[in-house]
Prior knowledge:
Chain A: It comes from Cohnella silvisoli. Chain A: Keywords: Cell membrane, Membrane, Transmembrane, Transmembrane helix, Transport. Chain A is mostly helical. In chain A, α3 crosses α7 and α12 runs antiparallel to α14. Chain B folds into two domains: about 210 residues, D-Maltodextrin-Binding Protein, domain 2 (3-Layer(aba) Sandwich); about 200 residues, D-Maltodextrin-Binding Protein, domain 2, CATH 3.40.190.10. In chain B, strands 1, 2, 3, 4, 7 and 15 form a six-stranded mixed β-sheet that branches. In chain B, strands 11-8-12 form a three-stranded antiparallel β-sheet. Chain B has a two-stranded antiparallel sheet with strand order 5-6. In chain B, a hairpin with a 2-residue loop joins β5 and β6. In chain B, α12 crosses α22 and α21 runs antiparallel to α24.
Amino acid sequence: MYKAKFYMYQGTIGFLLALIAAMMVFPILYVLAVSFTDASVYVPGKFYIWPEKWSLEAYKYLLTGGSFLYALKASLFITLVGTPLALLISSTMGYMISKSYLPGRQMILLLILFTLLFNPGMIPNYLLIFKLGLINSWWAVIIPGATNAWTLLVLKSFFQTLPSELEESAKIDGCNDIQIFYKIILPLCKAPLAAFALFFAVGYWNTYFQAVIYINDALKWPLQVILQQMVLAMNMNNSMNANVVAEMLAKNAVPPEMLKMATVVIVMIPIVAVYPFLQKYFAKGVLIGSVKS
Amino acid sequence: MKKNSGFKKTFVLLIGIMLIFAAACSKNGNVAEQESKAGSASPSPSGSASATEEEKPLDITWLRISWNPVSPDSQVEKLLSKHTNVNVKFEFAPHGEYPDKLNVRLATGDLPELFLLRPDSLVTYLDSMVGAINNGLFKDLTPIVEAPDFSDKYPNLAKIPKSLWDMAKYNGKIYSVPANMSPEVCCGFWMRGDLLEKNNIPLPTNTDELKAALIKLSDAPKRYGTSLDQYLTSEHLAPAFTNIDGWAVDKDGNWLQAEYSPGYRDYLKYMNELYEAKAIDPEFMLGKLNFFEQFTNGKSASTFFQWFTFIPSETPDPVFKFNAEAGEGAKAVLLNPIKGPKGHGMMTSRYDESLAINAKVSDGDTARILHMIDWIISEEARGIVKYGENGEYRNKSDNTQTKEQEELAKKHQMDLLSSDSPYFEDDKTRYETIKQTKKVTPEGDAMVNSFLEAAKKVIAEDRNGQLNPMFTYASYSTTYMQRFGEMTTDLKDNMIKVILGKSSLEDWDKYVASVVNSELYQKMLGELKAAYLANQ
């Protein structure tokens, strides 16, 4: 009796979880299916989980657009340079403010907390970037995002959980501060650093608004901006009907809905590719620093 | 040894990062360079002392919207440099983010030499732009535009009608060049000609005949007499009952908003009668289809849209066409402006954008920038944009275009010269272009000519030659600019309720009184009156 109830209970839970999983998976399947569907069989508004007829038209349109390679270069530079820089700045600063003997520590912490609570807004930020001479440069996007109060506070909390005896023994062995940080502390921080690496990488990869405001040369815009423009350029009207699709086919154009889905896939690929390698650190890293012993 | 090599690696890595940082920071120049570049017209450095101002190329930056991804092979800059001796460096922002980017540049004073203004459809200058004008950031173009020799120096810009230049004024001065203009007559009332013929209904000429025709052509729920969406786009009929195109002002400076004028209740009553007779889709406010799609899908027998939309033509690709759902043989007929109790149902156009010049640009350089703009809208430039300098974008002989030519034109980004442009075409000229490219049928030709003649008469007689005065004077009323939305929050809801029969006309009168008699609304009217009288 007990067993029957147990199995029924487990079955119900399993069924609900499968349903929830399906709700999560179907939208992704839809995105993939529409992006790989041939325009001749695509019906706007129909639900797809598998392409009726495979085609790479949408991807060809996006990837062969003249400015696509420029945008890819911009996104890669911003992400591949910005992420390590952000990790370097955040980890070193987090380590620094974790030391209770640091002169002026309280003031520094207060200043960091202040930025958590107050944001000056677009105009002062623009003036700052302008005065620094970073307008129209990728650094205008990289540097402001290189650290933030939340990251610093979380890393500070993590560093404070590390036993001080480790540093003391390293000092006794003749290490200087930089060596202690690089050889002792950093190897112990893989979990939080991996988590923040993912946050920073995703943030930099998804850069849009800052790029639009600070970068004037359209050939320096990152991928998100260019892809959004490509989709909008093809978007003739909001509600697609069969006649509009037919017109677009006659002009060998790709329906906007397919382009949007292909855009989502292209933008998703790097993050999806990197995430499995960081996942084991991510789960641990999310909670790091939230509990202080 | 191992310890030292590790330390060295770290040290070298840190130095490398600092060098990259320093290199990137110096790439855009120092602050002084940035400041001098921003907002100051910089003629190219004088090479030879004997070269005159005119001969030296002028370097400017032009901030504008990027409608399409920018092509790395754009030839526009070379073209402008060759034909106008102006080296243009374009700065872009995507359409959706352009207001934010421009507002930031206006607020910080970091303005390029030439920039696009894109306010909403109600006013020419938004709050942020008015602030910038008052802070002296915009060049006053009045001395140039109102000079007696303006049409000699800038023959193409001189084609822009005075009514549109007036809309570019603030405090009586012109601060921008109107761009992206439509002909003065915007839209016409299109009906399904095939259905009218089938039901032996003559072309309606007034609101009573129109109502009868719309009710007769309704076949709910398959088809409704007229299309209406949640934005109430049929408001083009309202002037037939109010004789007001948006706003009106009398010679004493008293302003009247169409929706709050006495005739508007008659318009709402008219729409309610259509609704009760099932000539309007009862779910129009749900926004399933926009008004245009309702017509092209055969869901409605009429719509208001641009007068050049459905002109019958012999080419297989007219401007717009009906979907298969509209049935075979579907055709549209353009009615002359419908006469109502007080006026004609017709809306006039305005423009959505304008080009402003930074006040720091010298007078000489301003003239050169205007010459460049004048060239861009000249026949020569338009010919190059359309055909290419050597026929590489389109064949001049038969006006056909191959796929390769189309791709090349896109690659060279010639659309940069035709979008956001101050090119003005009056209705006749616009129609001549359509006639040539679309091979309009004789029937279509007669229809359009009749409409344009009638429309011109309406503007001249009904409206005394004036377009919506709000576009010219709205900037003067801070209450209008800042609080109009707040005052009219419930306007659309109340209109819809009356049309649906959920509110009576007496309820509507009470609502109108509550708005018009409010302190805020009266304050706005007072400001507008003062602005109007000050500029007479």
